[in-house]
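S1.2 Input.
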Amino acid sequence: MDIEKSLDEELLESINDERGKYSSDFLSEIRLELLLRGYKEVNGVWKKLDRDAAVAELGVIVKGLIDRLDAIEKRGGAATRVVDPKFLNRAFAIWGHFVVANLILGLFFGLVALIFE
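S1.3 Output.
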């Protein structure tokens, strides 16, 4: 436990002191890890929460993620019929994607063959 606590403290110090040196992807991974370990960012500084507050904070985060997923499902996701409930719509959507992919690849290989003849 002491080792984990000291590692957490070292991580917090490096994140709080050198925030501008990290990529946004790395910071988002670190942010998620800190949230799972029971930390919260307050005015740009990460602080340890007690267990009940950490569980409540994670509950809010999970509820927000569920709401985002519901919004995506209501919006319909991507504008394609690949996930349509009707079989024929799905079949023709997949066939259409296949045809377009073959056209693109055919054009590419045709141009390459024309250039290197």
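S1.4 Remarks. The longest helix spans residues 87-115.
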